[in-house]
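Researcher: We plan to redesign the surface later, but first we want a full-length starting point. Tokens attached.
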């Protein structure tokens, strides 16, 4: 029974990691729209926020993919 619960746990971890980028982009955009400091690195903060998640999102999705692939390989 313990062997069956382990893949489910890995699946939940992978799903949780995969859900973070879209949720942050959808729910975080209105939150950062009215930031006190409007510029970061010379660009508007809202644009910086989306560019940052454009880079972080695929990284998190890759981690989630690796977790799922290890589950299948084991």
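Model: Full-length starting sequence:
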């Amino acid at each position: 029974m313990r062997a069956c619960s382990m893949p489910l746990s890995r699946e939940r971890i992978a799903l949780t990691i995969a859900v973070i980028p879209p949720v942050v982009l959808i729910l975080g955009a209105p939150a950062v729209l009215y930031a006190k400091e409007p510029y970061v690195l010379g660009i508007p903060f809202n644009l910086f926020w989306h560019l940052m998640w454009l880079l972080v999102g695929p990284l998190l999705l890759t981690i989630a993919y690796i977790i799922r692939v290890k589950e299948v390989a084991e």
